Amino acid sequence: MQRRQFIMLGLGAGVGLSLGLTLYPVLQSSTQQRSDAATLVLDALLPALLQGALPAEAAAQQAALRRSRDAVLQFLPFLPRRQQAELQQLFLLLQQRLGQLALLGHWLSLNEMPLQSRLQLLSSWRDSYLDTLQQAYHGLRELLYGAYYGQPQHWPALKYQPLEFNPYV
Amino acid sequence: MYDPIAEGLTRGWRHIDASTLTTDQTFDTDVVIIGTGAGGGIAAELLTQAGFKVLMLEHGALYSSSDFRQQERWAYPQLYQDGAGRKTKDQAISILQGRTVGGSTTVNWTTSIRTPANTLKYWEQQFGLDFASSGALEPFLDLATGRLNISEWALTPNHNNGALQRGCQALGWQYTVIHRNVKGCANTGYCGMGCPLNAKQSMLVTTIPVALDGGATLISRVSARELVWRGNQIQELWAVPVDAQFQTDPRLKIRIRARHYVLAGGAINSPALLLRSKVPDPSGRLGKHTYLHPSVISGALFAEAVNGHQGAPQSIYSDQFVWPEAAQAGFKLEVPPLHPVLMASKLTGMAEAHADLMRQFNHLQVMIALLRDGFHPEAQGGAVQLDSDGEPQLDYPLTDYLWDGVRRAYLAMAELQFAAGAAAVLPVHDDAQMYRSWSQAKAAIAELPLQRYRATLASAHVMGGCNMSADPATGVVDSFGRHQQLKNLTVCDGSILPSSLGANPQLTIYALSWRICTELIKKLSV
User: So what's the ipTM on this one?
Assistant: First the structure.
């Protein structure tokens, strides 16, 4: 096993085991900390998941990522409070674990992690023996893709042209 | 454009948005109806017309055709339970349920199917419900069919449904043209986001306006929290407003005292209210045996455009495999409407592979196979449980019996899609690939590991949890929806079904509710 793969598996397993144990990080965190963690993790995962879908031009790409992240954050409060807490816990744990890896010198920050490594992290969750990690993979994936493809600016690539009886404002 | 809700409100309908209340409230009424979907809507019209003072409660908001936006990013959070993010406890099955005035009837795909004879026979054998031999449900199926303008879809199926029809024709498989509850339908394809033309004959535009015109009161954005009971009587109902995201907001209390309580919150929320209220449950079946029609998905690429978002979402189904002779899980074949959020979140893969699939969006044809659960010892459904907030979650076990049905469903859908002319077929499963021939797909599907999370599963039909039975030992309510222990409580929604149906449930729920309320009116009129 390559060293990087080992790190990714360790990261995934650590998060998975922590998710199964306690809501401690959520209870101890402030609203600002939770929001920062969600933003950090979403900003890291969206460019990886959306490879191939994002516009090529840099400014358009950044706008698409920002729209998608904002759409996720706006949608989260509609989920049951139980699910919101689980997601917040995932974001906080990921932020903490990644912070530890950064301290060990693997990456300076999550945003410096190569996109392929981020995808590798998600793949390791999907293929994990831990239910919590598989749930995290599918839950995040659905949220993030739903947020991106819910935006009309991203529909031209699909050639999806819905009727509009009442404009969305 | 004509908006019957806006006009009714102008005429003076009694509607209270509970989120705007600032002080505790108390209401006295003859009948309170909790939930405004297929069961609650029918109850509201019939009870109001019978002269009773009726109060309707709805967790969701009162939206109308003027409010509906033809975009999933608006529709899912505003019109669906948990923003369309409801899932089973283990998160293996997504559950689509409406949460707005009109309930799921406001967002369903209009498919209207009479209760299958085999299902009624099973209920008679297992639960002593004599609908099959007495024909007691038939007049009410007819009444609902007339009231909601249910008739066979006369236009050509869209290409998504057309592929299902063509595949059945090529293979000699059974198929049926679907009956829909529409009037003046323009064949646009936005049923799942609220009909913008008021063509869908949902509760929102049919029975609820009649009830409101008749003097009923509607409270929207309110969550029923507890039935207070003593002996065999409910004394009052406690409720609270919900906030802008439909979360309970216990800053004030709403008390409702009624002569009779009609519970119609759907097959997850109705049992949840009864569980929160700790009502008697001697049969041990309250919140148990909850069925989902767990649905398996198969995508296919066609050379020609499919444009599955255009046209009536469902106009063809196949019952070729619903009632197998062997003791196997049967499944019904249908198609869903194809819109970007639903597709992107359900299709498997990530990054380039996912993006490539989405670029072929308009050439994607998608089928679903709805497993008929509830007819076998290994398909006894799930259990509604309460979390620490008192909110429901459904623990639904996936058994070997069901997984065998999943594999056979993947096979049937792939065979049909190739027979219809697909260039490639993709079973929606994490380990599946795009297969270019039926033989290749057949061999690969046989080897797919069938376990939760690998196979994408979804449900749009929740049934059971307060099941009817002639015997109080095996049911929560009797065949007239009367609670076996609490004498002023009637349940009329999908929760009373003793099994899944093997068919889309709205017409069955309309008919059962009509029958239940006809009997209730007799009782209350004495």
Answer: 0.95
The 10s digit of each residue's pLDDT in A110-144 is 667 889 988 998 999 999 999 999 999 999 999 99
Domain residues of chain B, as ranges? 4-80+105-148+201-287+464-525, 153-188+295-372+399-451
Nearest by CB to B70, from A75, A146, A164: name it: A164
> Rounded to an integer, what distance in angstroms lies between the CA atom of residue B472 and that of residue B285?
10
B23 φ, ψ to 5°?
-135, 160
- Which CATH number is B153-188+295-372+399-451 given? 3.30.410
Task: Note which residues in 103-162 of chain A have CB less than 8 A from chain B.
Answer: 119, 122-123, 126, 131, 134-135, 137-139, 141-142, 145-146, 148-152, 154-155, 157-160, 162
Phi, psi at B185, each rounded to 5°? -65, 130
CA distance B58 to B14: 14
Is the pTM of the predicted complex or chain greater than 0.80?
A: yes
A163 within domain boundaries: no
Q: Which residues on A lie below 8 Å from B188 (Cβ)? A: 163
- Average pLDDT, integer, range B6-20: 98
List of chain B residues whose C-beta atoms are within 8 Å of the C-beta of residue A148: 344
Hey, are the CB atoms on A77 and B1 less than 8 Å from each other?
no
Whether A168 is covered by a domain: the verdict is no
How many separate domains does chain A show?
Answer: 1
Task: Kindly report, residue by residue over B460-473, the tens digit of the pLDDT.
Answer: 999 999 999 999 99
Host domain of residue A70: 3-158
A10: pLDDT strictly greater than 80: no
Distance CA B526, CA B522 (A): 7
CA distance A165 to chain B (A): 7
CATH of B4-80+105-148+201-287+464-525, one of 3.50.50.60, 3.20.190.10, 3.30.930.10, 3.40.630.30: 3.50.50.60
